[in-house]
Design a protein that fits this description.
The chain is about 65% helix and about 0% strand. It is globular and about 80 Å long. It has a domain at about 280-560. The strands form two sheets. Strands 1-2 form a two-stranded antiparallel ribbon. The longest helix has about 35 residues, at about 530-560. The chain is an all-alpha fold. The model has no long low-confidence stretch (mean pLDDT about 90).
Length: about 550
């Protein structure tokens, strides 16, 4: 039954990718859609309010600067709101807000939501007021998700255009991403979640009186307002500390399945959008095929780990999968599928205690994040992450046949290759350097409160890989609410969001300025299964060269010790 669920999920993602991808292509090319009668007047009003000239396009540098300033402004606004939240009206009562909102925690939280990482070194129900969750976090989930999608579309334009110095207008793309994509899906999806039992209210926390006379406080609030958009916008921050494992966030398996589709469908559909806008649908299909192959590989590794009987139970003569830290209403199947989808999708909306997974069960999501969002990935960032890996394959393939490396008619020269290599090395440089700092300093080691040895090593690497991938999930054995981790994780989140985007858009600008070269008999085809296999090999090879020592010291070492 588990593998039937996996197959149904993948089939739905692949089936929905084409119509969703074609819709995105129409939206960002200015084509007609059924939402136009409602959205076009709103778009025109927002353009007037913001002073946007939709006819004025931006160079790569201007697009990057707009994206950066917009993100930093959002982080600054959220930081101020977090620091002043005690002055806000409404619930919950002050006595329930037991986690102090320090300046470093507020800064880390603001950066995390502005970068779609939603790294949470706090418990939502014990830290934030309802208005902070809705006015602050929900708005950033929309704005940060939309800006990421805008960057992905601009990157596609750069590959598609020729002999031009522009990639579109960031503000126009941002508005269209919100009005035509995120807002309508989030409204409908949130209503479906309310139907499934996800709360949406501003009522006080409930005091439940037990049969033995004890009183238990049950937090509640506007959960559904945050739940769908956190997945749709590649965010992942939960209303509750337990995130998707809390029964108010995912009360049913259907609610969990809807959340996973919200994470995966739009990023997967961007491969179709890429093929449509560049005029190479088969090249887009190759990218999607590589993503699916890597996704299945992660599922196999994680499922084999979590479906196996733990050693402690086997020694007692018991059988069954590893259910430690898992919700029984989800079991191994839903938990494994969620772990792989969320670690591939830059949306760390977990529904289990990932730290309770076996060594290889932890390795699967860790590898997914270390590879740099090449499987579905974040909204926008996943597409250009996969294309960057594809360009490495095109470069190596071109060298093997003795031709100037090209991809979809664009030459990959020295300048382009420097940007591609810089992109490929940025993630390992940030993750490994920060992990080394954490594992060799007293402030960093102080965060390893539960585990040492190989699992403790993995927890540190996992944290920085998650922040660099703008994912946000963590292993519970790491206490990340400290000045050291709040600062260093912020560095990783900013590098993962803006460093990678700047390199990708700069490359897109160089491609847009080129004239497309004609495809001839000596050109390496970019749309064949063989080229897809070359991409897959490059992803595995580059990932292995960068991270194999860290994986050996962490999850592989732990697995061999059992």
């Amino acid at each position: 039954m588990r593998w039937l669920e996996y197959a149904v999920f993948l089939a739905l993602v692949i089936a929905l990718a084409r119509p969703a991808g074609l819709y995105l292509a129409r939206v960002f090319d200015g084509g007609a859609t059924w939402l136009d009668p409602v959205m076009r007047p709103l778009e025109a009003g927002l353009h007037r309010l913001m002073g946007i000239d939709p006819r004025r396009e931006m160079s790569a540098g201007s697009y990057i600067l707009s994206f950066l300033l917009f993100g930093l402004a959002g982080a600054a606004g959220l930081f101020i709101l977090l620091m002043l939240q005690r002055l806000l009206p409404g619930g919950p009562a002050d006595r329930f807000l037991t986690t102090p909102m320090t300046a470093d925690l507020a800064a880390d939280t603001a950066v995390s939501f502005a970068t779609t990482t939603t790294w949470q070194a706090y418990g939502g129900e014990t830290t934030l007021r309802y208005l902070t969750q809705t006015a602050g976090l929900v708005s950033q989930n929309f704005l940060a998700g939309a800006s990421g999608l805008a960057v992905g579309i601009a990157f596609i334009r750069g590959v598609a255009r020729q002999e031009t110095g522009t990639l579109g207008n960031f503000w126009v793309d941002l508005v269209r991403a919100i009005l035509w994509v995120l807002l309508p899906i989030a409204i409908v999806g949130s209503l479906v979640l309310v139907w499934q039992g996800v709360p949406l209210d501003l009522s006080p926390y409930v005091a439940a009186h037990g049969l033995e006379g004890g009183v238990q406080t049950i937090p509640r609030g506007p959960v559904a307002a945050l739940e769908l958009i956190k997945n749709l916008g590649s965010n992942g921050g939960g209303f509750f500390n337990a995130n998707g494992a809390h029964p108010f966030e995912t009360p049913t398996p259907l609610a969990n399945f809807i959340a996973l589709l919200a994470i995966a469908v739009l990023p997967a559909s961007l491969t179709v959008t890429f093929g449509e806008i560049t005029g190479s649908p088969r090249a887009g299909a190759v990218l999607l095929g590589v993503m699916v192959a890597l996704f299945v590989a992660g599922l196999v590794i994680c499922d084999l780990s979590e479906a196996a009987t733990p050693h402690a139970l086997a020694g007692l003569g018991l059988s069954g999968g590893n259910l430690e830290g898992k919700e029984t209403r989800f079991g191994v199947g839903d938990t494994v599928l969620t772990a792989i989808v969320t670690s591939n999708g830059a949306t760390g909306s977990t529904n289990a205690a990932t730290d309770s997974f076996g060594a290889l069960g932890v390795a699967a999501p860790l590898i997914n994040m270390l590879l740099g969002e090449v499987v579905f990935g974040g909204l926008g960032s996943g597409l250009y992450g996969m294309v960057m890996a594809t360009l490495v394959a095109a470069f190596l393939g071109g060298l093997m046949i003795g031709r100037t490396p090209t991809y979809l008619g664009k030459r990959i020269g020295q300048g382009e290759m420097q940007l591609i290599i810089g992109y490929a090395l940025l993630t390992p440089a940030v993750v490994l350097l920060l992990s080394s700092l954490a594992l060799n300093t007293k402030p960093g080691l102080a965060g390893l409160t539960t585990n040492g040895g190989a699992r403790g090593f993995t927890e540190a690497v996992f944290a920085y890989a998650s922040c660099m991938a703008n994912n946000g999930q963590t292993l519970g054995g790491l206490n990340a609410d400290s000045l050291f981790y709040n600062l260093t994780t912020s560095v990783a989140m900013l590098a993962g969001r803006y460093g990678t985007a700047a390199l990708a858009l700069t490359l897109a600008g160089r491609f847009a300025a080129q004239r497309r070269v004609a495809v001839g008999p000596g050109t390496l085809p970019n749309h064949t299964p063989q080229f897809g296999a070359l991409i897959l090999a490059c992803v595995v090879l580059v990932g292995g060269l960068c991270y194999l020592p860290a994986l050996v010291l962490g999850p592989i070492s732990e697995a061999l010790q059992r």
